[in-house]
Amino acid sequence: MPSVWSLAVDTQHFIGAYPGAVLLAILVDVICIYMFRQRMNIAYDHHQQDEAGMSRLDRLLVALYRWFPVSLLPRRTVTPAEIPIPAVRKSETSQVNGVKQAYDAFLVLDVEGTCVDSDGLRGFNYPNEIIEWPVLLLRWRDKDRSGIARELEVVDEFRSFVKPTWRPQLSQFCTNLTGITQEQVDCAPTFNMLVHSFTGFLAQNGLIDPHTSERLVRFVWCTDGPWDIRDFVVKQCFLSKTQMPAWIAGEVLDVRSTVRQWYEGGGKSARFARNEALTKPPSSLPNRISLSITDQLRLLNLAPFEGRQHSGIDDTRNVARILTELARRGVKLEPNTTINPNKRWPWMGKRGKVREGYY
Fold it and tell me: Which residues are within 8 A (CB) of 269 and not within 5 positions of it... i.e. 6 or more apart?
């Protein structure tokens, strides 16, 4: 039997004598790996759409797909447009029963805030100030004594621009994105003044006591993602040197998260009626996919976005459409996101002040 040393020497001589053959072997290996990964992609797509009809080979390939080294050949990316949409006929959705709903009213909010277009200042770390406060109030049209309901309707609407105080001048990027002009915010109330007027709106609709702000009915705030209240409102309360109002403190219904849970088959905040098989979608979304309002409308087979994107009032109205459709499909609407009113960012100095050197 040849020794390890002799095998190493023979291999070295072979590589030196036939370098072309070695390169050809490596090229063949790479091609085989690529074809294998493509076959796994096909099997994985099959798994996403019809797991029950998969062959044993496809099941094995899906298992390999989950741990195969992605550094050699990365998995192909998936966009929301490639995701199969559940087709729901009117004859089916009309048979969906309502579910027991714990909340009597829903406040849909999608704020707009100051922003700049510069590296390092994008995202939610910037000291954004709220410049538009649009809210739609929805109530049940058909809730019975046992709490069963499925039809929501908009009963009132509130909208106000808000005057920023830390950086009163809007950037051109902000105006282009939101459509909000400098003149609109210059004539608007400050956030503290807005809180006072909006408290009156809530009292007028019988949601809170006008003197104590105590909640009189069970209502929940609804937003597209956690950012509006978790980030924008918390930052604004800091900059305005005011406590978070009692009527907005607590948990929030993240509509984007609820749509994802509905699409993937339900979860803690997306439970289905007894005949859920009629409306339950067929597959799951990749974790890397973040659903915009437009994507959510498409997944629910609703008409496209109505109005101007990144206009606070138009965003809010479209989120309300999504919430109404979820209720119609038998989804239980309840909070799924906790808000920390004491959340802090590195730029926060003394109360209401932005540290020097930041922005």
Answer: 253, 257, 258, 261, 332, 333, 334, 335, 336
Of 328, 346, 349, 155, the closest CA to residue 241 belongs to 349
3-state secondary structure 118-185: CCCCCCCCCCCCEEEEEEEEEEECCCCCCCEECCEEEEEEEEEECCCCCCCCCCHHHHHHHCCCHHHH
Q: What is the pLDDT of residue 22?
A: 55
| Mutual angle of helices 19-49 and 4-17, in 10-degree steps | 100
Residue 291 CA: distances (Å) to CA of 70, 120, 180, 228: 25, 24, 25, 16
* 269-328 pLDDT per residue, tens: 333 333 333 344 545 666 657 799 999 999 999 999 999 999 999 999 999 999 999 999
Neighbours of 64 (CB within 10 A): 15
Q: How many CB atoms lie within 10 A of CB 320?
A: 24
- pLDDT over 90, % of the chain: 61
The region that residue 143 occupies, defined by phi over 0 for left and psi between -120 and 50 for alpha, beta otherwise, is beta
Amino acid letter, 117: D
pLDDT score for 286: 64
As a dihedral over the C-alpha atoms of residue 44, residue 49, residue 51, residue 54, rounded to 10 degrees, the angle is: -70
At 13 the pLDDT is: 57
Beta-carbon contacts of 120 under 8 Å, excluding residues fewer than 6 positions away, are: none
The structure tokens listed for 203 are 């009292």
Distance CA 316, CA 136 (A): 7
Asked if residues 323 and 255 have their Cβ atoms less than 8 Å apart, the reply is: yes
Q: What angle do CA 33, 35, 38 make, to 5 degrees?
A: 110
The pLDDT assigned to 264 comes to 86
Cβ atoms within 10 Å of 253's Cβ, excluding its own: 22
User: Which of 327, 319, 332 lies closest to 157 in space, CA to CA?
Assistant: 319
Whether 294 and 288 have beta carbons less than 8 Å apart is answered as no
